[in-house]
Design brief:
With 1011 residues, the protein is α+β, with helices and mostly antiparallel strands. Helix content is 40%, strand content 20%. It is built from 30 helices and 35 strands. The strands form nine sheets. Strands 2, 3, 5, 6, 9, 10, 13, 15 and 16 form a nine-stranded mixed β-sheet that branches. Helix 23 packs antiparallel against helix 24 and helix 28 packs antiparallel against helix 29. It is globular and about 95 Å long. 48% of the residues are buried.
Length: 1011
């Protein structure tokens, strides 16, 4: 069986009925097959096939289905601990089988005897003299809400899951298969149909009951097609004429594309407010890449209940309607919303114009999108981008112990099958971006930019020509080769890729700094820690490195007037120690000095930084004294260094009064707002008996000086005009909630202050909404520790009041209600079981569909947290298993929370109060039987987490051979299911097989079948 190859074009006629929540249609595929081919396959998972015609002859067909294996009953009779590894192995093999099955064509068609001169259908059925036949395949299909189009009230959109297009349109769904598409979509009169490509026109059906939209798409893979239907508001967008940089070729200078924005009906004002920066973003990226955008049109559509934050496809960017900014913007949401648009536009360049060659190369596109996003953030301010990238690097390096797959898996049979973003979307995106920026640093910004310009220029030219071209596809190998050759560091780039692209895990670099007063030198001891996978990756990289440069760690030593850079050749060694010369002169001791001068006061070194340029993707920890950290915070004038200094000062225990003063001084300065936010949190966390709990009075005075009216001693009206200062203010409630008294409780004056701000909150006259301000205080109240019943009652009273207020005046996505539920849930964990039981009743009211999807998700997560504290993980996981929320994103969030619980509990999840066989079996049945492939993958991850195994589908050869010995008999069919289903008889409704000719025609927006 072969997938149909060399597909030249596809035509589609379909009706999408939002009221019936169903769709139906037929498609005509023109493709080439080798002479003598007996069977070919199409991807049509989840669709009902009513008939297939090949070259005018009705064809026989069969639908494949996977073998599904249950957990053997014999295992369940034993203790769970005894069979835990067998269960993990069975789940792994079964899930891999399902993923591999769904990546293959499932609709198998028998090719009828082709005449030497087959019947002509235009010129498309001519025999190819090179040993190929061109054939025309016509397929009649239908589907419902579980078949690939997600219906949310009157709005519909195609699902961007692991199988992309194959669940709503029969197609050859492989990344390297491109073809042009012409589609005619029938929708209800008050609805619009939005599809990837160019709108060629719209018309009415003869009876005026359906509106028909016609689109045309140049050759593109199936994964780059998107469909949305619904009653939308429309906002056209005018772009300035595209003008490429002088370096671009004249052929790339095209008229600006036609850009149109869509949003749910009644949100036109919000749509215009949200997209006002789109022309500037679009033009900025054209200037950065030196090429005009090659596609003739761009549609941006905001959808309610979009599965995921965004979906980028050919000529179309789909965003969640949650990112629409209201007329009165929420200050903290503005940048977040704009960054989603930035990522969407960047995804059109890297993901549509230029595409990954295969699933293993997806990191290249993700990294280039992050790189382009970084150029935009740098335009807003270099501090914003530097801080943003540093936090990404920190999150990745501290969270990747080697259990996650590499960015580019080498073994094709062990690829992650598109699951790398499920359950950890930020990790994959951030690691891809960080490695891409490390690569740019290796070769230089200008060299790197020229490489990207060449790649995107070739791809844009291929798009303009309208032909399928290999220049639009980029593999990891070819990308790294071009970067290495352009920078003249090909060997070094190979070693770099071996460690950070093909290798797994991130090490921890522990540096101990000590000044030797007698030798007048600085001793730096560097220790490298990490998993075996981390070390193996470095050993392979070192073997490929010509001069060992890949294993060099740079150390920056500041002596005030001089700033020197040293290197330590660490490589794959566990420990290396170096002594660096200090340039300052030793202080001479006077004989009459009675005071003994300690070593610290003699040290001329101001501070030390390890890997300051971020050339290692490593979690760096430095052990240097308080004075050095203080100097670094006070004098470095670099946001990343200042952030590291605050982390270093906050990690010193017990915290001294000197640390309090340094942090206080920095908070009151005009430094970068995001680092000042970290200083505020560090102040709250560092408050202790040793420094006299000095942070609390200062933080109270600081808040009062900024947000209170001195005359009446009450909070003044909100003013968020200076967003940087507003961000600092948002961090103060969390700094308060982190402070503790000597008995471990939150000081009473802190709680009184926070309640007072909520009681007197006044947003009249403020140009921004105050939802984020209110949410900050509500969330912070959930983190306090209170023993006094009156204080608890006061907090609960305010939470209840804001819950009622949000019903009358709903906040954006119900964020105030979400903050209230999270706060109450966190407080209840330190209250009696009676309080928690009553809270469960309240939380379950918010599971109902009338509430916003984000509220329902938060309520379900809080329910799981409370259930976990009351009844253990078995009951908590049951909430995920039984979650039948109409929104897929809510279900995903609940499963993701369950996985977090399992990771947090560790071995306890398999203990006496842990998971039972009944629950584990129910999770397994979800993994093999749920219609949503993302839910199935979450269920797999939960099983593996419970069993103490890596939660990814990636296993390298060594792991597959040693850690999880293969038991092929596990996948023998236990239920008698065959891998192939016979073609159903003519009496069966779906999948009718007939002989003779089949005529398919469109009739008034509905499809009929005539023999």
């Amino acid at each position: 069986m072969d997938a149909a190859h060399s597909v030249s074009s596809q035509k589609v006629w379909m009706t999408v009925d939002t009221k019936a929540q169903a769709f139906r249609g037929w498609t005509e595929i023109i493709c080439s097959i080798a002479k003598g081919t007996a069977t070919i396959g199409l991807h049509s998972h989840g669709l009902d096939i009513a008939g297939i015609v090949i070259n005018g002859i009705s064809a026989d067909y069969v639908g494949r289905r996977p073998s599904l294996n249950s957990i053997p009953d014999a295992w369940k009779k034993n203790d769970l601990k005894e069979e835990i590894h067998k269960t993990a192995r069975l789940a792994y093999l079964q899930h891999r089988h399902l993923l591999e099955f769904e990546s293959q064509p499932n609709l198998l068609m028998e090719i009828p005897e082709l005449e030497e001169n087959p019947p002509q259908n235009g010129k498309d059925c001519e025999k190819n003299c090179a040993g190929m036949h061109k054939i025309v395949i016509q397929v009649l299909f239908s589907g419902e809400t579980s078949s690939g189009l997600h219906f949310a009230d009157r709005y519909v959109h195609s699902v961007g899951g692991l199988r992309s297009l194959a669940t709503w349109l029969p197609r050859v769904d492989l990344p390297d298969k491109q073809c042009s598409v012409e589609i005619e979509i029938a929708v209800r009169p008050d609805e619009l149909a939005i599809f990837s490509g160019v709108l060629e026109g719209h018309d009415w059906s003869p009876d005026k009951k359906w509106k028909l939209y016609k689109y045309k798409v140049v050759p593109t893979p199936a994964c780059n097609l998107f469909l949305a239907v619904g009653p939308f508001d429309i906002a056209p967008c005018a772009l300035p004429n595209s003008a490429s940089s002088p370096a671009a070729s004249p052929s790339t200078k095209n008229p600006s594309p036609t850009v149109t924005h869509f949003s749910p009906r009644g949100t036109l004002q919000s749509l215009e407010s949200t997209m006002k920066l789109f022309p500037m973003i679009f033009k900025f990226f054209e200037d950065v890449l030196g090429t005009s955008f090659p596609l003739p049109s761009v549609q941006n559509v905001f959808l309610p209940d979009l599965r995921g934050p965004s979906k980028i496809s050919h000529s179309c960017c789909a965003f969640s309607a949650d990112y629409l900014l209201p007329a009165k913007e929420v200050a903290s949401r503005t940048l977040e919303s704009q960054l989603q648009i930035v990522r969407g536009v960047a995804g059109l360049w890297f993901g549509v114009v230029l595409m990954a060659k295969g699933a293993a190369d997806a990191w290249v596109m993700e990294g280039l999108v992050g790189w382009l996003e970084g150029r935009f953030l740098a335009k807003l301010g270099t501090n914003e981008w530097s801080h943003h990238l540093a936090k990404q690097r920190k999150a990745v390096s501290s969270g990747d112990d080697g259990s996650w797959p590499p960015l580019c898996p080498r073994e094709s049979a062990m690829e992650v099958a598109g699951t790398e973003w499920v359950g950890r979307p930020h990790h994959f995106r951030w690691k891809s971006t960080t490695v891409m920026c490390m690569l740019e640093k290796r070769v230089g910004q200008e060299v790197f930019r020229r490489v990207i310009e060449r790649l995107i220029s070739r791809a844009a030219h291929a798009v303009e020509s309208g032909l399928s071209s290999s220049s639009r596809f980029l593999s990891t190998h070819s990308f790294l080769k071009e970067v290495g050759q352009s920078g003249g560091v090909r060997k070094e780039i190979q070693a770099f890729a071996e460690r950070w692209v093909y290798g797994r895990g991130c090490p921890t670099l522990n540096a101990v700094v000590k000044f030797d007063n007698q030798a007048y030198g600085l001793d730096v001891k560097l220790q490298q820690q990490g998993s075996k996978r981390c070390r193996d990756g470095m050993i392979k990289a070192m073997s490929m490195s010509k001069d060992g440069g890949i294993g060099v760690v740079k150390v920056n030593v500041n002596e005030g007037t001089t700033n020197s850079e040293h290197t330590i050749r660490l490589g794959s060694e566990s420990v290396m120690e170096e002594r660096f010369k200090v340039h300052g002169r030793p202080r001479k001791k006077r004989r009459l000095d009675a005071e003994i001068v300690d070593e610290e006061s003699q040290c001329p070194v101001k501070w030390v930084r390890v890997d300051p340029g971020g050339e290692w993707l490593a979690n760096v920890k430095i052990d240097q004294n308080e004075t050095m950290w203080s100097n670094m915070l006070d004098e470095a004038k670099d946001v990343v260094a200042e952030s590291e200094a605050i982390e270093g000062l906050a990690g010193i225990r017990p915290s001294s009064m000197g640390i309090m003063n340094v942090l206080r001084k920095y908070l009151e300065s005009g430094a970068f707002c995001r680092v000042r936010m970290e200083a505020a949190l560090a102040l709250g966390q560092s408050s202790c008996e040793e420094n006299g709990f000095a942070a609390v009075p200062f933080l109270i005075r600081y808040l009062r000086s900024r947000c209170y009216d001195a005359e009446v001693n009450l909070p003044k009206r909100n003013y968020f005009g200076d967003l940087s200062e507003h961000y600092v203010n948002l961090s103060l409630p969390f700094a308060f909630s982190a402070a503790r008294d000597g008995d471990g409780t939150t000081p009473s004056e802190v709680i009184e202050l926070m309640l007072e701000v909520l009681d007197h909150n006044d947003n009249e006259g403020n140009e921004f909404d105050d939802a984020d301000w209110v949410c900050a205080f509500l969330e912070a109240l959930g983190a306090v520790r209170v023993s006094d019943k009156e204080e608890i009652a006061g907090i609960v009273q305010r939470i209840d009041r804001y819950l009622e207020r949000d019903k009358l005046f709903p906040s954006l996505t119900g964020c105030v209600t979400q903050a209230c539920l999270r706060s109450w849930s966190n407080l209840s964990l330190h209250m009696s079981s009676t309080h928690r039981t009553s809270l469960l009743k309240l939380l379950k009211k918010y599971h109902e569909p009338e509430h916003h999807a984000r509220i329902r998700e938060t309520a379900r997560k809080c329910t799981m947290e409370v259930e976990l504290s009351l009844h253990g993980p078995d009951r908590a996981f049951s909430n995920a298993i039984t979650c039948s929320d109409p929104s897929p994103s809510v279900q995903w969030g609940v499963w993701d929370e369950a996985i977090d619980f399992a990771a947090r509990l560790g071995r306890q999840v398999r203990g006496k109060r842990g998971v039972t066989w009944a629950t584990l079996d129910a999770i397994y049945r979800t993994m093999i039987g749920n219609e949503d492939e993302i839910v199935r993958h979450f269920a797999y991850m939960l099983i593996m987490s419970i069993c103490g195994e890596p939660v990814t589908t990636y296993r390298d050869k060594e792991e597959d051979a040693l850690q999880l010995p293969r038991q092929d008999s596990m996948l023998d069919s236990q239920n008698g299911d065959s891998g192939l289903l016979p073609a159903p008889s003519s009496s069966q409704s779906p999948g009718v097989t007939k002989s003779g000719k089949l005529k398919i025609k469109l009739k008034l927006g509905a499809f009929s079948l005539k023999a």
